[in-house]
Amino acid sequence: MTRSDRVTRWSATALAAVAGLGIASLHWLGLVAGAALVALPQRTAPRGVAAGVAFGVLALLVAAVGLLLAGPDALPVALEMTQPLGVAVAAAVLGGAVGGLVRGVVG
Amino acid sequence: MTERSGDLTRRALLAAVGGGAVAGGFLGPVRGYLSAFAPLSGGAWDAAADDPPVRVAGDHGEATLRYDDAGVPRIEADGEAALSFAAGYAQGADRLFQMDLQRRQLRGQLSAVVGEATLDSDRFHVGMDFAAAADATWDRVRDTDAGPLVEAYCDGVNRARDDLPTPVEFELLDYDPAPWTPADVMLAEKLIAWGLTGSFRTLRTETLRAELGDDAAATLLPDRLDHDAAILGHEGATADWPVPSGGAVRPPEAGTDESSRAAVGTDPELDRWLSGVEPPAWAGSNSWAVSGEHTASGDPIVANDPHLTLMAPPVWYEQVLRHPEYEVRGVTFPGVPFVVIGENDRGAWGFTNAGCDVIDCYEYEKRADGTEYRYGDRWRSFDVETRTIEVADAPDEEVTVKKSAHGAVLDAGAGGDEFRTELGVAWTGLSATRTTNAILDLNRSRGVEDVDEALRRFDEPTQCFVYAGRDGSVRYRVTGKVPIRRTDGEMVPGTRVFDGSAREGEWAGYTPYGESSWDGFIPYEEMPHVDDPPYVGTANQRVVDDVDYPYYLAEDYSEPFRGIRLWERLDALVDRGEVTAADLRDLQRDVHDGRLDRFRPVLADARSELSGAARDDLDAVLEWDGEAVGSERAPLLFVHFLDAYEGRFVADALGDLDGRRDPADYAPTQWVLATLGDEWFDGGRAVAAADAFEKARERIDAEGWELYRDYNRTRIDHPFDQSFLNYPRYPTDGSAATLFNFRVEAGAGSSWRQVCPQNDTPSRCILPGGNDGNPYAESYDDQLAAWANGEFKPMDRAMRGDLAVRFVGGEEE
């Protein structure tokens, strides 16, 4: 993989994001694994962590869309669930950051 | 450090941080939270999309399940097993957590998921061994025609449990529900029966007699209230009821039994425990039926609104079942297959609590360190078993389940002084019962003869059953088995704790945790009833005047405020003639609070002790018309005055009770409270009433309430009391004493309203909340605003709505 090639990098990131969302829908560890996948194509370790966090936020947005599609009342109810929602946001952001660290490990 | 080694160190550090964070996620409570709440995979979010699969294969034949706009399942099948399977599927999809929580309550398993807060409840329910009573009941039902339908229903619940996401509450508590069993269905019956007939009033009366004397006890907790609004014997309505000769010797009047031993108080600890787990005394209801003789259409109309706990989701689940031979719509308790209150294509029915005494307490002479008790001229060993109550986040608790010839034996582990510390408890529900069969037969009924026959098997709870049929028939009957107590062969009332060793107050033919015969119970034909009355009204008031009836029926009845008002309004409607369903819906919305007239002398007394704005407020209450509507201030003042006045009475008159007791548990009814004179209050009644009125005003000012609707608002909450699970608040009318029943402080009231004309006019109904127990769903609370406004929705039985599930497979019946 050539990280310096923008098209290749973005393509790999998009592919990684789709695969990551798939894994994250099976198990919470998928948030970390997905973040790691999107982090790997990035040019630097800090960008890898940022991509991981962005993946976590993407997972939150996809979950919100899923709730919107489930019914008109589902998302408003979920937004009222203060503590569970806090866990969800923390899991997405922290899980994304932790996964993003992989970019710094593999070099 | 070289650049390479520094890089390696940095990578190792990042790997350690990442690995540590992931490892941390797998450890301790974090793992549970992540499994439940992580975005995309968390089970708590899965429940938002709980649409069932469009096709479900099973073993019970073809059926279709549709949901209408109010989330009411409409199920059609050619076979009853398929119908039951689909009903189980719908209830499992919509109410599984509620079903499991109620099952846990009665099995004494709440602490396993909730923690130590529910240990008292678990100790009681394990001690009563409701689970064994449910097992005995299922043994009796299993081989009847209801047995296979109950099994099919359980299959349906369990299929939904397998097919659909776990309800969000299970994720919050982090456990999975066990399969639903036929014994659980029977347990649901025990739950409601205990809620309507379980009462330890006898203990409170005896304690009051022991502490304050016979006269005080008779004044504060009288067996009968002085009114003329009994259900049977009402002129022009139920006067022609068949008074049984019974061939029975009339029992001595309650409270005059010369053989009574001196009253003994119950140990405060035992009393506290039992009061804490006892069902609320207010569980009541309204129902009435007007025959075609007095209706505009010439066909009868029946109405019912049971008053139970208002909770999220509601205590009732609405369903429509269509079979080639019958179609039925109404409500059932989640966990029960058949419609309990509702209507089929031949008639409609409802229930109110009859208040019959079907529970007794016994004490024993013991020996051998309390392991044996004398029973007549023999000594018997208590049946003893040790059970474990699992407690979340705390050590398990070992409890002893003890039984005697009478039933459960309860003690609070209290040290004995002069008080009674252990009690045998006999309750009709501890025996095997056939109510499931009776309810199934009501669903299937093709006319009033079937209804009459079905009620023979309605063993529990004791209820006032009201029916109106398309053939013009009207029925009123007290259901359930009511024991006849005998001491030395003579009938005695069940108004005191019996000496079980002397075999006082025995129920012949009663077998706790087994099958009882009818031998020791009031014969079915002689239970209070009337066929085809011109009209009938029930509101938990006295069923019949004791002088007219040859058996002891009840220790006490509810306060008659609603009963008096009901007769007053029904009499007026019938006198006017041409009664319509709309008239009877208006009657369900009646908000006249009869307590005002009862307390008018007390309020008038207080007037001389008040001045200024307080007196102006009091005058406004005295001039108020008694209509408990939200736009008035007078009802706000009045209901808070009642609370404060009762508090003042408890402090003044009951403060001398043993200090370990909560004197409020021994407070009289408001019907009695209104008649108590100066001698019960420090400084006299007028001073007490004025003081209570001032306190009421202070509270209202402190809360910032202006009108009744500022206070009288729905507060219907989920057991978890989380904002996203609780229902929204709406102002409503009515009070604890009005037909339009709402008890804001107790969180109770009309848990279902139905008005069913027996012609082609559609019946109408409403639930206080919504039919779907999934908080993400639109139908979670979609009926609440209409309920609070006194509105109704159509109660038709058409198979409309989008097809949700097609059930296929298995043999047709």
UniProtKB/TrEMBL annotation, chain A:
Classification of source organism: Archaea, Methanobacteriati, Methanobacteriota, Stenosarchaea group, Halobacteria
Protein name, UniProt field: Major facilitator superfamily (MFS) profile domain-containing protein
Transmembrane segments: 12-37, 49-70, 85-106
UniProt keyword terms in alphabetical order: Membrane, Transmembrane, Transmembrane helix
Automatic annotation (TrEMBL), chain B:
Presence of keyword Transmembrane helix: yes
Spans through the membrane: 12-34
Highest taxon above the source species: Archaea
CDD domains: Ntn_PGA_like
Keywords: Hydrolase, Membrane, Transmembrane, Transmembrane helix, Zymogen
GO molecular-function terms, A-Z: hydrolase activity
Pfam family, one: Penicil_amidase
Stretches the record annotates as Disordered: 236-265
Family: Belongs to the peptidase S45 family.
Stated name of the protein: Penicillin acylase family protein
Lineage, opening ranks: Archaea, Methanobacteriati, Methanobacteriota, Stenosarchaea group, Halobacteria
